[in-house]
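Known limitations

Files may contain more than one protein. Parsers should not assume a single record per file. Below, a two-record file is shown to illustrate correct handling: read the sequence, read the C-alpha cell line, then continue until end of file.
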Amino acid sequence: MKIKPFNDEVIAETTAHLNQLAKPLGSLGRVEKLAIQLAGITEEAKPVIEKPAILVAAADHGIVAEGVSAYPKEVTALMVENFVRGGAAINVFANQIGAEVAVIDVGVNADISTQPIIHEKLRWGTRNFLHEDAMTEEEALTALTVGREVAGTYIEKGHRLLITGEMGIGNTSASSALVAALTEEPVEKVVGAGTGLTEQERQKKIKVIKQALENRKVNSNMSPLSVLAKVGGIEIATLAGIILEGAARQTPVLIDGFISSAAALVALKLEPAVHPYLIIAHQSVEVGHERLLKYLNIEPILQLNLRLGEGTGAALAYPIVEAASRMLREMATFEDLGL
C-alpha cells in the first residue's frame, strides 16, 4: 500500500474554511497548521479525530550488558506487567483521553506469555550490537511487518488516531546509534542521560556507541534497513512499521518522544513520502531529540521536559490534536453570524 501525497484540493478547502471561522486570521496559530496537516493526512476537509489507540511495543536490548542504562533489563518485563495492571503513567493518561492501550511483546527477554497482551516475540531481546548485529535484516523486516499489521488491525477497529509508545531498557542507546548513523550527527551530540545516567556514565555510553558503530562498519552508503538491523531495536522497527501503515491508511499517528522519533526517522529513510504525515508530540530532554527534530524539520506540539517514553508525551498532546479537528467541524464561521 503506497503513501499518497496530500490532496491539494482538500488542503485548499480546509484552509479556506479556517479563514472563514469566527476569529482573526491565523489567531489559533499552530493549531491551525495542525488542522491543515490532519486534513492532508486523512484527505478529509473536516477530519474526525477520535477513539485513540496507544500501541506500546516492548523489547529488550543486548547492549544493556555494556552498562549503558541506569536500570537492569528485568525492568522491561516488570513494566509490561505494570501496563497490564493499569498502574503506569501511560495508563493514567490513556484513561484521561479515553484511549485503549495495547502492549505488543516483540522482543522482551523474559517469558511473559501468560500476560493478556499481543504476543509477537521475534527474539528474546536484540543481540549486543557492540559485538554483533542487533538483528538480521529478516528480523528487522518482520518487526516492521508486525507494526504494520497491528496498526492495520486497530485502524480497522475504528480507531481514528494511533499513538506510538515503547518500553525497552537500553532503547535510548539503540535510538542514539540509529540517529547518529542515519543523520551523520556526532555521537556525543545525540547521546543523553537516558533513564538517569551520571555524566561519567553518559561518557561511557558515548564511547560504547562510537565503538559499536565502528565495529558494525556503519557508513553513509548503507541502506536504512541494514542500519536498523545492525544497531536498532525490535520495538523501534515495530514503531516504524506502525508509522508507515498509518500513513498508508491515511490515519494520523501521534509520535511520542526520542525513541518514537528515531522510529519515525527509520520510517522516513525507508519511505520518504511519509514526511508530511509525521506529527511529533513533544521534544524530550534527551539531547539527541532536539538534533533529530531539526534534521526532520518538524516542530513538536509540546515541550515539557519529559523523558519517560511509553507514549506519555503523545497522550498528553492528544487533546490538542483533537481540538484541531473539532475546530474545523464545530466552530462557527462569520457567515453563520450573518457577516
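...continuing to the second record:
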Amino acid sequence: MEGRPWWPKGIALSHDEDSITTSWGTMPLHIPDVTEEWWNSLEGTWGDWPQAQKMELIRETRTGMWYDIGDYKALIVPIPTGKQTSRLWRNPQLRQALTAHLQLPFAGLDRNGDHILVYPKTDAAKITAESLAGLHQTLINGNWHTPQDEYGWNDRLEKIENALKTNTLWRAPHSYNTIGIPRIELDRMRPVPIPFSEAMLWKKDTNLPMIRQVIKHKVLLKWRELMPSKYSGEDVMRTATGGVAHINYDLNLLDKAEAVAFGLDSTEIDEYLSKVDRFQAKLGIMRLMLMGTPLGIIGLVATFMLDRAGEISQPSIGYWTFAIIWIISSTAYAFTEPDWRQEL
C-alpha cells in the first residue's frame, strides 16, 4: 500500500481493516475489493446510484482512486476526509444554486465521510477567473457566505504550525470585507474531498476566506475585475490587513503539510517558509511607523482642550506640531507597507 498515491507514507504508523494510525492521529480506512459485483451490491448509498457496467481504473491521486464505471466515473476515497463535497448535492438549496457552476457528484456512499462520489463522465470545466467569480457571486447572493473570522483562521494556522513544527508564527488581522465561503476543494470545476493533511490537522468545518480560492488557482487579478469592489478592494488585498501575503502563507503551510504527510519534496516550500521571519520584520517596521498617529491625535485633542481652558497662549504651535507628527507617521506607514501585488 505504501506505493499508492493516497497512502500517507510520511506519517503512517500502522493500520487495520477500518482505521489508519498516524503521527497526527487516527482516521477511518476503507479499502474495498473493487469489482462490479461489489459495486452493484452496495447498500446505504445516496442520490441516483448507478449500476456499474465495468470497473476500470483511470488513475490514482492523493485523494483516491478514479474509476470508469460505464456511463459515469466514480471517485473511491480510501481515507474519507469529511462530507464537504456530498453536502453540495444533498442540500437541495445548495444544489440548485451551484449546479450551473460546478460539476457536482449526483450519487455516493457515506462511510465516515465521503467514501464514494459519482460524477458525470464529461470533463469538468477549467478553473478560470470567470468561473470562480460566477461561483462566488452565487454564494454571496444566496447568503452562503459568512463574516470575517480572523480568530478562527488564525487558530487554524496555529494548530497547523504546531503540528508541523515550522518555527514560523504569523497571525494577521483581516478586513471586515474578507468574507468566508464553504470549504470547496476543486479539481477543475469539480468539487472533491478536502486534502488528507488538512482534515487531519484541523477537525472543525471552517469557512475559509473567499480570496484564498482565487489566489490558490492564480486568477486573482482578473477575478478582481469581475467581482463587486466591496469583496475585492484594496482593503481585502493589502498586507496590513492580512490580505494576499497572509493567504499565501496559509497555502504554503498547507502544501507543507501535504508534503510531510505523503513524503513529497518540499524544497521550494521550505525556502518560502525560511523567509517568513524576514517578511514579518518588514511588517514590524511598518507598524512602528504608525506609532506616531495616536500621539498626533492625542496631542491635537490635548492642545484643543488646553486652548479652550486658556492654559496656552500660542495653540497654533501645538496644532502644527502634532498635525505634522500625524501626517509623517501615516505617510511612513503607507510607504513601508509591502505591496500586495509583489506577493502573487
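Parsers that stop after the first record will miss the second one. For reference, the second record is described as follows. Residues 287-336 form one domain.
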